[in-house]
Amino acid sequence: MRTRIHTRAIGKSSLGSTVANAGMYDYALPQVGPNGLSIGRTFMSKFLRIGVHQSNVSGYTSKAWCVRRVGSTVFLKWGAVEVRGVGDGRKVYWTLPPRAKTIRCGTVQRAKDYAKTAIARRRNHRYEPLAGNIAIRRRTADRGAELEQALATILFVRSTEKAARLGDSRWTQVMNHYYAAVRRELKTLRGREVVTTGDGLLATFGAPAAGVRCATAIREAVRTLGLEIRAGLHAGEYKVSGAEVFGLAFHIGARVAAKARAGEILVSSAVKDLMSQSGIRFKDRGVHQLKGVPERWHLYRVEH
């Protein structure tokens, strides 16, 4: 029997919206039809991948996937999301009504296999399991009136470890130790945590030297856990609205980090130019095109 697929855009009142309220782990819920009889069981998983993009209002373009199986049918839901805050206070919002796909697999076993593959693909693509609700973002018309500008050095740091290699349980343990080490160094050098991803963190500093020294300290600290990081720093203006920060500078910092090799700390020319009297040495890493960023950027590796 052939697998049939139906794709559509959905609103928050559709069947697929149930998935947004599911927990992050696979579990079963009985499904009951109009006659009160059971029509099977549904299995749900949700995943989040955080990215950075200048076109998103918050400065972050991230993506969420929801996977749900009901008997021999699999329901997928995905779309761009905004991530606000960190830790227990983190909120996730759909930026637009998510898209949905219905896959009629014909048999329960085929549906199980399809869902298993979909979940494995998300994990291999650096998605993190997601708990809690995904809400529809409601914006106020006068949001722009309360914006203020700020200047800072932006650090984006990410572990090079792979969740798929460690497994969920070990990955969670390692990341707990990893974030504890990162936050210790942030506190010491007065960095401000902006947002965390499944294996990374974005922070701001008042001075570029503090950001570079923090990145170096984080690299040494996490090596005691058997981990390596790649880190990128950029200095530039961003916008502030209450507790929220956003702007192209965050995107550039993330793209600088993406050019780094394992154990490497890269800075943009904007950071290097501000540190001529710091005593920190840099090595030229050439001119690079940063994905989604205008023009080409000169990057340098921190040598100390």
Helix content: 25-40%
Structural class: alpha+beta
According to DSSP, the number of beta strands is 17
Per DSSP, the total helix count is 7
Assign an overall shape: elongated
Uncertain segments: 4-43, 52-60, 140-145
CATH superfamily of the largest domain: Nucleotide cyclase, GGDEF domain
Integer-rounded radius of gyration: 21 Å
Task: Provide the domain count.
Answer: 2
Describe the structure.
- With 304 residues, the chain is an alpha+beta fold.
- The chain has 2 domains: 4-136, no CATH class; 143-302, Alpha-Beta Plaits (2-Layer Sandwich), CATH 3.30.70.1230.
- It is built from 7 helices and 17 strands.
- The protein has helices spanning 17-20, 108-124, 163-166, 168-188, 208-223, 248-258, 269-273, and strands spanning 4-9, 28-32, 38-49, 62-70, 73-84, 91-94, 99-104, 128-129, 134-136, 148-159, 192-196, 200-205, 229-241, 244-246, 265-268, 282-289, 296-302.
- Strands 1, 2, 3, 4, 5, 6, 7, 8 and 9 form a 9-stranded mixed sheet that branches. Strands 10, 11, 12, 13, 14, 15, 16 and 17 form an 8-stranded mixed sheet that branches.
